[in-house]
């Protein structure tokens, strides 16, 4: 699923990244050195089309390169083409092989090419147009450098030189100065690659950078990096970037860097994460300058973002598009270079010690007899191709993952003057190393020197990671012989783990099955032989395999994956403990099913369906058998004679069910023959090489009986239900799996294709179990909820403590403020007391002057008191007069308001009377109108002749007198209504007059109230104006009096102080002592508050730490929930089985459709199963089509292939491998070609070992059977005569029996 997702993304991005025309053949992209732009071409020659990619179509006689699984490509020629398969004769040994078109590519060396363009053009055939490879733009720095050297200093024009050598590139003058004055003078270069800087490896990476720089300084060499500097795509951690920049700032040698796939962001690779390093440090130019003013320092790193020729070597950053890469490798610039430095995936290269690349570039594309160095894969090694080229992978400078265990890392020193030959290999031993130990004994067998890293036997060192494969049995054996309290013997394994961890060595304990299990392989379109082994893994190994895929896909990092593995294994152990306590232990290999090998010998039936008499039908070693029917009774020729009954009898014996029918009105007793009391079916065969007999009987009146004998032992239980459970347990299958693998009835043969998502998943669950992952996800969700609950509780505690912290902080702040305030008071008091003391001393010298001044002030104050008394009396008189007038006016206002309210109330009352009269008038008018209508109706019906009379006697129904009485009543009612209306009109007129009079009285009262309010306002304003003048004079006198009083009090104090000098001095001293004591107390309180605040803050920090730990645990548990959920490992397991089903079905569909149909099944993002068909177009391309658009014949081909693929997969996995295959009416909706294809396919699968079939029973009608009769080994006939059926076996079968 992930591989196809990346392929889909690849195909989606191609049209956006590469635009070209058969006329102009230009490609443009950006670069950190220069920016390549779209060339200026006339508008008439520009191309607006995008490149359309499809699988290549090869013709007979084409020279091709065959891509083998082992990575060694071979040359050959196409001999035959059929249905997407090609027969190729290899040049090396003239052997013949068959391959798909996706497993081959054109051998461009053997085809004629046109020389009018630098891009190679492959001539396909006379009927096909010439297809050009994309033309790359190559930056030739060597040509620029040579042009500069050949130009005199006075005439140099750098822009002109750049335009002439690289017309479509824009390179800065600073870059030219950089390569001219620095990098071009370096001849030796130290190569490293694949640093993969990330937070978990940062310390090791910095140590690597320091080591490389030191080695380069010692050898007077530059540094050459071949890609993947950073680990995470799309972003760079700021802390990692700062640390790298700080380390590289000390570098003093030039460096050249090309981006790898991990460094690049966009598809074209023009945006990458090496750009921030372009000015990481600056170096001094070795070239002498004319003056000191000339620039002597240049940027050290030279970032090559696109293909570049420099120093007679060709540098190629990672390029995703293979067509572009092929065009570059075949360019003239590469041919003229003496060495290549790339970051590429080469077919046959070792991705690790076990896996080789299968989808990379062919080694035949690389030039021969050149030094080729590459980054990308972490294992240092050399990829060779016979008679071709040699590519050397530099490898990573340290062990990044456990897959690099035991790999020796090194730096390569190359000399550009010796055609870039490697002249020295410098060993590296930096960072943590990985050690895999396959058993407990190997771990315990290590010596103390190896564990402690002492002496010559030093094996482990601090930081290393040891992975020990441990089985539970080994641990139990150690526990049983250790931890004895009496002998005080400890568990040696636990002690060894503690010792390692104490020495800084990480020890990871894994299930012994997990460490040796292979990573499951998800098939792709290039796979022919898919080994689906996920079901063989234990639960822990499956989880580890899934997370390894996620790490490889970049979804999660290795640290998170490791944490999730540990949490997942703990969860699985907990589930196992729960299952053990419930006496139902969990299966260690949840995806594995018990193998069932079923070989059916014969089936005997009696009283079953139309077969009244006992009949035995052989099922072993019969080949392809046609079962046809003949009806000797009236009716149809062969329908209803019992062909399906004899074929499906074995299914009924094993499961008690038959081929499901569209109508669901059947009963279990319907299988009993009408003339028999009991239906009996006996099935004989072998189960896993043990003979068995299953006998099922059913009567019309009693319950069914079932017996089961296996290997001579009678395993029949007391009830048929219990016996059926036992049969299901031994056969490891229920009726549904039997229907899908053996008994393909005419009503169920298309069930898989028609099945809904839920139904198909249920069908697939018979081959792989998801129960343990569903239980694990449920348990993980419970743990996550518990962690979130505890985190919420801690948040609540933190909230409370934060309130306490706030209170403590406020108390501390108040205590500090109080302490500072008291200190200020004390300082101020000291100054004040000192001034007082000085003032007393001065005052004692002029005491007589103070007395005289006090007498004068007393006289003035008495005068002011008299003046204030007069002004108060004047103000009182004015206020009294004003208040009397206001009282009078307000009393009058109150009277007017009361009168107005009464008038308003009267008006409202009259309004209500008017409204009532109006309503009564309207009612009277309505009654009058109704009475008039009734009177008019009566007048129209006055004529007696209008009465139809009694239908019996003919007399009028209503008499004339009655009619007259009715008329008088209507007349009286009309008179009353008219009188009532007149009375209502009079009442309304009177009420309207009274209402208008009341309204006039209310309006007059309101006017009088407003006049009174205006009088009150004028009186209040006049009173305020009269009193303001008096109040202002009183204020002035009181202000003067206040100042005199203050001055007098001051003189009194001075006089008193003079008379009490000693007493005041003692008081001052006492006040100072009191303030000092208060200050000390305040400081003590402040210190206490600080201590309380510190304790609260420490408590909060502890709670926050615990909360963060639990939050982190909850977050990782949430990730684990997703990992274990339906879109995680369940989808991973389901995808594996879906892919396996598709792969197993594909050969059958190819055979049935002659390569014209495809069925694609995949698990969607929402856990849905997407089924889509594809049809081959006349030009060989494929068009996707929904299943609903398939014809009946196409639908039958696809459904047959899917059913056979399911049986194939079940047989391959060992879930159920049967010697018998039954197909009821498989030729429905098929044309003659389709029927012939089915016949050939049945012959083919019967002869092959894939399904291990010995007998194929095919039920057909005579007409369909005649078309493919040569496909059958034997023909049996079911004959119906006299209402009963019997079997006539093929003559060959009868002769064989004799």
Walk me through this protein's architecture.
This protein is of the alpha/beta class and 1298 residues long. Helix content is 47%, strand content 16%. Strands 9-17-18-19-20-22-21 form a seven-stranded mixed β-sheet. Strands 28, 29, 31, 32, 33, 34 and 39 form a seven-stranded mixed β-sheet that branches. Strand 36 and strand 37 form a beta hairpin. Helix 15 crosses helix 24 and helix 25 crosses helix 27.
| Number of discrete helical segments | 29
Adjacency order of strands in the biggest sheet:
9-17-18-19-20-22-21
SS strand fraction: 15-25%
Q: How is the main sheet built?
A: 7 strands, mixed
Strand runs, count? 43
| Category by helix and strand content | alpha/beta
Shape: extended
In whole angstroms, the N-to-C terminal distance is 56 Å
| Helix content class | 40-55%
What ranges have pLDDT less than 50 throughout 5 or more consecutive residues?
Answer: 1-55, 111-133, 483-488, 513-533, 580-593
Rg (CA only): 52 Å
Mean pLDDT: 78
């Amino acid at each position: 699923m992930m591989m196809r997702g990346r392929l889909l993304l690849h195909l989606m991005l191609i049209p956006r990244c590469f635009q070209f025309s058969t006329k102009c053949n230009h490609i443009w992209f950006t670069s950190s050195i220069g920016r390549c732009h779209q060339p200026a071409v006339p508008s008439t020659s520009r191309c607006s089309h995008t490149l359309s990619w499809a699988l290549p179509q090869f013709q007979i006689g084409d020279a091709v390169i065959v891509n083998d699984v082992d990575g060694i490509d071979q040359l050959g020629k196409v001999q035959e083409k059929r249905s997407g398969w090609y027969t190729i004769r290899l040049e090396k040994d003239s052997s013949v092989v068959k391959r798909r078109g996706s497993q081959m590519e054109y051998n461009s060396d053997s085809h004629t090419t046109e020389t009018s363009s630098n891009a190679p053009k492959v001539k396909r055939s006379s009927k096909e147009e010439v297809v050009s490879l994309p033309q790359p733009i190559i930056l030739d720095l060597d040509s620029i450098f040579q042009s500069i050297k050949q130009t005199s200093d006075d005439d140099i024009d750098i822009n002109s030189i750049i335009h002439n050598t690289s017309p479509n590139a824009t390179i800065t003058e600073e870059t030219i100065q950089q390569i001219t004055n620095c990098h071009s003078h370096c001849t030796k270069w130290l190569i490293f690659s694949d640093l993969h800087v990330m937070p978990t490896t940062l310390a090791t990476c910095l140590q690597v950078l320091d080591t490389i720089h030191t080695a380069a300084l010692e050898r007077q060499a530059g540094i050459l990096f071949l890609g993947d500097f950073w680990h995470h795509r799309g972003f760079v951690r700021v802390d990692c970037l700062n640390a790298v920049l700080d380390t590289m700032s000390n570098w003093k040698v030039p460096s050249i860097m090309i981006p790898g796939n991990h460094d690049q962001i966009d598809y074209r690779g023009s945006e990458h994460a090496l750009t921030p390093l372009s000015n990481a440090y600056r170096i001094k130019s070795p070239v002498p300058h004319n003056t000191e003013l000339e620039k002597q320092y240049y940027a050290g790193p030279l970032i090559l973002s696109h293909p570049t020729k420099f120093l007679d070597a060709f540098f190629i950053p990672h390029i995703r598009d293979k067509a572009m890469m092929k065009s570059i490798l075949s360019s003239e610039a590469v041919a003229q270079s003496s060495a290549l430095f790339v970051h590429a995936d080469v077919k046959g290269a070792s991705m690790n010690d076990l896996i080789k690349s299968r989808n990379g570039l062919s080694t035949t594309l690389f030039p021969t007899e050149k030094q080729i160095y590459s980054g990308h894969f972490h294992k240092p090694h050399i990829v060779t191709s016979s008679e071709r080229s040699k590519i050397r992978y530099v490898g990573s400078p340290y062990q990044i993952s456990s897959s690099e265990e035991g790999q020796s890392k090194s730096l390569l020193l190359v000399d550009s003057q010796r055609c870039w030959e490697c002249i020295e290999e410098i060993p590296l031993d930096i960072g943590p190393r990985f050690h895999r130990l396959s058993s407990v004994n190997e771990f315990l067998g290590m010596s103390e020197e190896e564990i402690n890293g002492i002496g010559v036997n030093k094996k482990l060192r601090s930081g290393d990671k040891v992975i020990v494969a441990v089985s539970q049995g080994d641990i139990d054996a150690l526990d049983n012989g250790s931890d004895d309290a009496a002998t005080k013997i400890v568990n040696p394994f636990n002690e060894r783990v503690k010792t390692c961890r104490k020495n800084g060595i990480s020890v990871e304990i894994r299930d012994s099955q997990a460490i040796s299990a292979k990573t499951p392989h998800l098939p792709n379109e290039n796979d022919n032989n898919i080994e689906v082994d996920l079901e063989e893994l234990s639960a822990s190994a499956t989880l580890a395999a899934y997370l390894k895929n996620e790490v490889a896909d970049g979804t999660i990092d290795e640290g998170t994956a490791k944490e999730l593995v540990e949490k997942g294994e703990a969860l699985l152990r907990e589930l196992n403990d729960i299952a053990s306590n419930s006496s139902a232990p969990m299966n260690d290999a949840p995806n594995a099913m018990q193998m069932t090998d079923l070989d059916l010998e014969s089936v005997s039936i009696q009283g079953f369906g139309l077969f009244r008499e006992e009949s035995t039908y052989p099922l072993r070693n019969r080949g392809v058998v046609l079962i046809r029917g003949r009806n000797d009774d009236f009716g149809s020729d062969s329908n209803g004679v019992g062909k399906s009954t004899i074929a499906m009898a074995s299914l009924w014996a094993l499961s008690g069910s038959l081929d499901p029918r569209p109508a669901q009105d059947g009963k279990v007793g319907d299988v009993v023959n009408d003339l028999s009391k009991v239906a009996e079916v006996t099935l004989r065969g072998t189960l896993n090489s043990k003979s068995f007999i299953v006998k099922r009987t059913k009567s019309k009146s009693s319950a069914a009986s079932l017996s089961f004998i296996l290997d001579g032992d009678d395993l029949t239980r007391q009830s048929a239900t219990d016996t059926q459970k036992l049969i299901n347990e031994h056969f490891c299958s229920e009726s549904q799996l039997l229907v899908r693998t053996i008994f393909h009835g005419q009503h169920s043969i298309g069930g898989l294709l028609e099945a809904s998502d839920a139904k198909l998943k249920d069908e697939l669950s018979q081959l792989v179990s998801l129960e343990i992952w569903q239980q694990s996800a449920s348990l993980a969700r419970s743990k996550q909820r518990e962690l979130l609950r505890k985190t919420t509780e801690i948040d609540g505690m933190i909230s409370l403590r934060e309130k306490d912290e706030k209170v403590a902080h406020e108390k501390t702040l108040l205590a500090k403020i109080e302490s500072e305030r008291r200190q200020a008071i004390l300082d101020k008091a000291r100054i004040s007391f000192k001034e007082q003391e000085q003032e007393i001393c001065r005052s004692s010298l002029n005491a007589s002057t103070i007395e005289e001044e006090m007498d004068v002030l007393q006289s003035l104050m008495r005068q002011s008191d008299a003046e204030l008394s007069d002004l108060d009396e004047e103000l009182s008189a004015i206020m009294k007069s004003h208040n009397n007038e206001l009282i009078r006016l307000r009393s009058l206002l109150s009277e007017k308001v009361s009168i107005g309210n009464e008038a308003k109330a009267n008006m409202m009352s009259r309004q209500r009377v008017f409204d009532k009269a109006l309503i009564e008038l309207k009612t009277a008018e309505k009654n009058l109108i109704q009475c008039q209508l009734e009177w008019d109706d009566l007048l129209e019906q006055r004529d007696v002749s209008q009465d139809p009379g009694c239908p019996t006697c003919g007399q009028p129904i209503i008499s004339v007198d009655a009619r007259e009485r009715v008329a008088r009543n209507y007349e009286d009612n009309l008179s009353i209504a008219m009188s009532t209306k007149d009375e209502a009109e009079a009442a309304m007129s009177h009420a309207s007059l009274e209402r208008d009079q009341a309204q006039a009285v209310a309006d007059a009262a309101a006017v009088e109230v407003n006049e009174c309010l205006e009088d009150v306002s004028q009186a209040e304003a006049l009173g305020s104006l009269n009193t303001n003048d008096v109040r202002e004079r009183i204020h002035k006198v009181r202000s003067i009096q206040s100042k005199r009083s203050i001055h007098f009090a001051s003189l009194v104090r001075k006089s008193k102080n003079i008379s009490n000098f000693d007493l005041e001095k003692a008081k001052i001293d006492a006040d100072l002592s009191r303030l000092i004591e208060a200050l000390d107390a305040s400081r003590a309180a402040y210190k206490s508050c600080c201590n309380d605040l510190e304790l609260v803050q420490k408590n909060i920090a502890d709670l926050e730490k615990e909360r963060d730990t639990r939050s982190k645990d909850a977050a990782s548990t949430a990730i684990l929930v997703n990992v274990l959920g339906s879109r995680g490992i369940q989808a991973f397991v389901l995808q594996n089985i879906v892919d396996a089903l598709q792969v197993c079905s594909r050969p059958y569909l190819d055979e049935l459709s002659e390569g014209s149909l495809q069925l694609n099944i995949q698990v969607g993002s929402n856990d849905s199963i997407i089924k889509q068909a594809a049809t081959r177009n006349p030009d060989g391309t494929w068009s996707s089509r929904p299943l609903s658009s398939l014809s009946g014949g196409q639908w039958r081909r696809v459904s047959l292939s899917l059913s056979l693929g399911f049986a194939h997969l079940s047989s391959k996995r060992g879930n159920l491998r049967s010697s018998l295959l039954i197909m009821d009416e498989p030729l429905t909706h098929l044309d003659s070609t389709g029927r012939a294809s089915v016949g050939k396919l049945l012959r083919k699968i019967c002869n092959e070992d894939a399904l291990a079939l010995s007998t194929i029973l095919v039920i057909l009608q005579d007409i369909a059977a005649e078309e493919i009769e040569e496909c059958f080994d034997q023909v049996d006939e079911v004959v119906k005569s006299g209402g009963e059926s019997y079997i006539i076996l093929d003559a060959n079968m009868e002769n064989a029996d004799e």
